[in-house]
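Weekly modeling sync, notes
Attendees: S.R. (lead), two postdocs, one rotation student

Agenda item 3: backlog of single-chain predictions. S.R. asked that every request posted to the team notebook include the full sequence so nobody has to chase files. The rotation student volunteered to paste the first one in as an example of the format we agreed on. Action items at the bottom.

Example entry:
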Amino acid sequence: MPKSSPRVRVCAVAGSLALLALAVAALAAPRRAGGSERTAAVTFAGFYAFDDGASRLYVRLTKAVPVEPTLAGKRAEYLLVGATILTRNNKNPLIARHFVTEVVSARLVPEGEAKGKAKARASRAKPADARLIIEMREPVTPAHRMVESADGSATLVIDFPKPKKPPPPEPEETPPSPSKASDAEKMQ
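Predicted structure, as returned to the notebook:
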């Protein structure tokens, strides 16, 4: 077996120690569900209806971001500055019209996909921004706050008051009229 020189052995040991140090640093680094150092990723959006009629929308993020609210009549929008929506399912609307709450629906959209007045404000937003668009039954002013967790993640919490009036009733399905006989009855 050929003998290696002391210089080669020192380099091999130093290289192994450097790889070990990189591996330990990678394992010790906090894991994120997405985003980068400058952006936060939306990990989950949810809705909760309380027994008294109040309700809560929440958006979980990998880290806290600045929030710019805009209220206009029965519509509320929250610009999440520096947030991205990585999972396609998080872009689906949350439909709440069947609950007795102020919220009719809520949807997260990347800022470039916002429509109407939100599109007009898009020039002010960065491409990594996300917008939460909420449709309400009545014009109300919901309270919002960003709650930071010990692991570095954060949750945008938006609380809605109990509605002042109940939602309109859902239309009932009309059964087929008894005067029309089925094809099976006509054949008899």
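Discussion: group reviewed the output briefly. The beta strands are 40-49, 55-61, 67-72, 75-80, 83-84, 94-95, 103-110, 130-136, 143-148, 154-160.
Action items: rotation student to repeat for the remaining queue; S.R. to check formatting next week.
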